[in-house]
């Protein structure tokens, strides 16, 4: 498989893209690299992707009620597959519950 950075560099529209555009493109590429031909992930693939690519955000959150609620909702999903939109909602939800988000908010942005 081709590294994400190389895939990003092949997208001409991102050549002068902002950090936010590149971040979003990275998320889309990570998802697409794991998705099936229909562009969806199984629940097992979704959990695996979260554990391998989003560990910093979910680490230590397992005991929090909100985290458990989000993961339970994933398990209760009637469809067996997760599409990109649902995956992004899942990422945002997990990010908002994360201790890492608070650390990011505290990063100095000026000298």
From TrEMBL:
* Listed Pfam families: S_100 (PF01023)
Q: Tell me the domain of life.
A: Eukaryota
Checking SUPFAM superfamilies in the record gives: EF-hand
- UniProt-listed InterPro entries: EF-hand-dom_pair, EF_hand_dom, S-100_dom, S100_Ca-bd_sub
The UniProt record lists the EF-hand domain at 62-97
Q: Which GO terms describe its molecular function?
A: calcium ion binding; calcium-dependent protein binding; transition metal ion binding
Q: What is this protein called?
A: Sentan
This protein's species is Nipponia nippon
Q: What is the lineage of its organism?
A: Eukaryota, Metazoa, Chordata, Craniata, Vertebrata
